[in-house]
Amino acid sequence: MPAPKFNTKALFFSVTVALAFSAFLPVPYSIATPVSAQSAVTAVPPRLILSGKPGETISAQLKVRNESETAQTYVVAVDDFIVSDKAGTPIPVAENVSGRWSLKSWITSPDMIPVDANTTQVVNIKVKIPLTALPGGHYAMLTYMPNPDIKPGDLKKTASLIGQRVGSLIYVTVAGPITEKINVTRFSIPQFSEKGPINIEGTLESLSDVHVSPKGSITITDPLNTKVADIAVDTGNIFPETSRDFVSTWNQKWGWGRYRADLNLAYGTVGAVATASVFFWLFPIRLVIYSLVAIISILTIITLLSQRNKRHQEQLEKEVSELKEELNKLENK
């Protein structure tokens, strides 16, 4: 996707490495990321999903829990993020932007949150959707920093700073005409394998206006066109104008011939399906060769022994015949 203000084609979205979860998770869940032995904080929920119309103001609640034994004051920050690789790795955006997917400027939240030891504090936020908001997804994250010396807008890409930030993803879908489109740009299996398990890899490209979560399966059929396996595939969220890799595994050890893999992933609100197919071989060629060598060796040994026995038998018969002749000569004298 174009993002002219900071020269990247990626999605603004709400996530950071310190959250210990990424946008592909299918179900929200609580996390706790210890900042130090004296300070630990949990953001609940890790993902907040909202929807609304242009011009609407949405009120919502988040929670932050102080897991430490001392009272803490957390600096609250709202920032946009981008995904620039195919693994969903989040990268914070320091500057203010006005990109297609940005959400930061719509959110109003407290600047500071005091939380007593082992206590959970409610954080009230408001999301004011502009009248000019484009339909589709808009993404940001709200984070808590226990160090009051760090300013909310300070998002330098340093491991120490990112490690001190814990927060919640915020997804807002603006109502209106929305495009939902996924392309399978790669679906590959090793063309020949002697034995399993076999990794099946793929890449999905999103041309959507909103994040989508393709789910489905890979069906494996054998050389007789009989279904032998269904492998579940859940890629997690794929954000607009980004690509995402996935890997599934067929835990079959042995196979005998040419197999086919069919990918079927349903996504979106209208039941769209992304499909792809590929053929591959699963055949234990070395095992077959070793078996043939062993069989041939055994047959050769049997043949050699048989021939040896035959020659020995012929020799014995010859000797017996010669003895008979000698006996006959002696009797005739």
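Above is the first protein from milestone M3; the second protein from the same milestone is given next.
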Amino acid sequence: MPILLHKNYLGTEAHMIISGDQVRWTSSIDSSEDFVLGYEGMPNSLEPLLRLYGIEIPDFVPEKFRKSFKELNGPSLIPWRFVLPKEVFKKNFKEYVTDLAKIEGLFAESKYPSFFVDSNSLFPMLQRAKVDKVLLQKLVRANDSHVLRHMLSGSDDSLLNVPLYDRVSTKTGRLTIKEGPQVLTLKKEFRSIFAPKKANSKLFEIDFVSLEPRVALNFANVHASNDVYLSFLETTGVKVSRDTAKLAVLCSLYGAGNARLNKLLATESVKMNARQLVRAVSNYFKLSDLKHYLFQQAKEGMIQNYFGRPIEVDNVRESILINNYLQSTAADVAIAGFSHFVKKFSKKCHPLFVIHDALIIDVDNEHLEEIKRYVYKGYHVSGLGNFPLKIKEFSHHE
């Protein structure tokens, strides 16, 4: 994808597009065709990808010049080609364009940058959520919650600002919120503050079912029902409860300790200890294949998730490699899946915010059945398989 340098960054009347060794000018931005540099917040902004890949590019404007204009409260649009000494601008800009051309070439060799930009289309489609301001004020008075206080101060006419999400601050791509209501850390018992915008609509939560274990199963090409834990029990013939099987899966996938699992097994009077059960889970998920795949990548100091996202390797313990791979792939599956959903139903529901593996929507009753039919089919990732979804009303009740 070509790289577009925003006019505000350049101090020019038009945007510059760099593609290989070709340079051209344009007055508009196509959000699907170009990486954009110098205007963060767009789905195709280049800055997050530069941070993800650890790429630093020197500014063609020396820092002392930018700092001087900032201290002087100069205009926001500075025509640098006239401000900088001619030779300085010409030399620095030439080097700058050369660096960007190399970055374009690097990203062309990786599938992840274009995937990142495409799935980023989810976030601009999110809309402001409505809150019950009277209830919110009551909860703020009764609870020492900075999340609630921030929401109350940030609400305007009972509408919250849309959260500004960040996909690159964590190693695996698990979402954080840079600005806006901290819905990711809001306690479940406070969800009742959210309200539908119309009398004939309701809030629903669409989320992925056992997403990270499902990534492992799909990688291994193991078929399972929507309930991966019951599928494990039915396939292997292991005689433990579903709750014990679920804990064993977590221990196996993430390297958790076996003490709690042994206690559960003791209450069920089964002739199997935690180590044996975890081994059965590992065999069912074919984790040896995933371990081998990741160890081969880790030799280079880096692994990639299914979509090609780079994950720096600090520790080659197999549990950490598996954890990073599954969490990162799952995070991208969720964002891509919700992006696909919102594009399809943009005129039939109001997407409000994302809570990791869940998308919260405001939907009219007349479109609910159509959305449910879509959800029950799951989300399909080419080459990786199907990921089951579920839908339920969004509230503090479980």
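Note on the second protein: The longest helix spans residues 318-344.
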